[in-house]
Specification:
Length: 296
């Protein structure tokens, strides 16, 4: 279902929420699959192989129900929306597919690609950020204009673009799903790529939540002299020491209770540790057993 807010005039009609209601059968054209090609402004760089195979199997079985949206060019038909369906149709062995032909300039082409993916949450955080950057850099739109077109707040657009300031290795962690956009924003509060990379490694090593990452970043920023690398090193060492102790306690509790135990402790440079213990159980009988182990 397309979002009702934030779409620029004329843009909503490019991505109808229900094509069968918006257009008549006579408006459709069947084009050769080989004559269509991906949108050069397509912000999505990764297509999930497993879901692509499943879609191809579905198309092979029942055909392609929803048409793709294209614009006609000297090279053929550039896909504005529906590249995933086009790829699946190729895998399914279709020779022709239904397409809705639209007149569109480069800006509208990029807008359609971005919004189609955002509405289905298909873009990862870095792909989304790169798309916004493309709109501001290549098409000279302000962040406010971008926000209005895609139905997001200006601050959401700004925060997304900021992720492109992360070290390349950290960006790759977000693309791979090892870190969330929230982790990325927390990392950005610390100055210097070296410290940012260190925090990213800490997150992966100790499975830190976004909130824990924010506290670790704050402890670094609260050092008396942020230019003093020795103090920053001390903060990382204290955090590492605390986390090592946590892992040891987890093992002891897991053995003692014969149940999976997770201990989360966040420590600042000068503050006392605070956290929580999570004990997993199978059922009420198992919970009673764990209680008896603790009480004994």
């Amino acid at each position: 279902m397309a979002r009702s807010s934030g779409l620029g005039k004329g843009l909503a009609s490019l991505i109808p929420s229900d094509i069968s209601e918006e257009i008549s059968e006579s408006a459709l054209r069947h084009i050769d699959v080989s004559h269509a090609y991906p949108n050069r402004f397509q912000p999505r760089a990764h297509f999930n192989e497993e879901t692509l195979i499943a879609l191809a199997d579905s198309i092979a079985a029942v055909g392609m129900i929803q048409p793709i949206i294209v614009r006609e060019t000297d090279q053929g038909y550039e896909i504005l929306a529906g590249e995933r369906r086009w790829r699946a149709a190729q895998r399914a062995g279709l020779k022709q597919i239904p397409a809705l032909i639209r007149n569109s300039d480069d800006l509208n082409s990029l807008e359609v690609s971005i919004i189609e993916n955002i509405q289905r949450d298909d873009l990862n955080a870095l792909e989304e950020a790169a798309a916004y950057r493309q709109l501001t850099d290549e098409f000279e739109l302000t962040q406010e204009q971008v926000a209005n077109k895609i139905g997001r707040s200006r601050s959401a657009v700004a925060n997304a673009i900021r992720l492109l300031s992360l070290p390349v290795a950290t960006q790759r962690m977000i693309v791979d799903g090892c870190l969330s956009a929230g982790h990325g924003r927390a990392i950005l509060t610390v100055k210097g790529d070296k410290n940012r990379q260190k925090i990213a490694k800490e997150i992966l090593k100790h499975n830190l939540s976004v909130r824990e990452t924010e506290k670790l970043a704050a402890s670094i920023n609260n050092a008396e002299d942020k230019s003093d690398s020795a103090k920053q090193k001390q903060i990382f060492e204290e955090h590492e020491e605390a986390q090592t102790g946590v892992l040891e306690l987890e093992e002891l509790l897991t053995t003692r209770l014969n149940a999976e135990v997770n201990v989360r402790i966040v420590r600042g440079a000068q503050s006392r540790g605070q956290g929580k213990i999570v004990i997993k159980f199978e059922d009420l009988t198992d919970l009673e057993r764990i209680y008896n182990s603790i009480a004994s």
